[in-house]
UniProtKB/TrEMBL annotation:
Biased composition (Polar residues): 30-46
Key words of the record: Signal
Protein name per the record: Lipoprotein
Signal peptide coordinates: 1-22
Protein source organism: Paenibacillus gansuensis
Annotated spans, Disordered: 30-53
Amino acid sequence: MNKSKRCIAIAAILSLSSACSTSNTVIPETPVQTAKGSQHPRTSNPTDEKKPTEKFSYLKKLSPQKQEALIRFKSQSDMRELHNFTPEEMVLVYLYSLSIGDPGLLYDITYNGGQLPDKDQFWDEYLEYAHTYDSETAIHYRYYDSIEVEEGTAEESRVTVVIMVSLETMTHSMALGLRKEDEVWKLDIYHLIKEHIHKAKANKK
């Protein structure tokens, strides 16, 4: 009888020891808390990644058809490609030429009227004396609010286009004259370029 009791006691002790040993090896899983208290791990969301910002271009302000026409003109120098461009569109072409630093395109769309020097001289003087100022102009008006023909200035072969940009309480505008030549609205701006050249040369003395 005593022997049976001892066997039962030993069996109970072994069972208890086994239970304690097992409980010591169990590690409860604790959910990871995120900054907002969520118990689920954060997964990467493709929409969280910043998309690359598309660079501004005056060229892209033109319709796809006019963009293609301008590209053809640059490669072929055929003025007929520009025959259907409005005065406002030619101002955009002008600002595009300034933004990419293309004196060749600028020369081609500048009203001549017998006043322009040869292309090589124009290029040299423009790049040395006027390019920096014009580049700043292109940057200044890149987020323009409006571009339109000035009321009361439209004539058969002469017109003024005003481009306007606003920032907070400030408003800046630039008026550019255009004249028809070779059936194309060209920028009547050589007198402005000459002013920049003369000022730059005077400052060098």
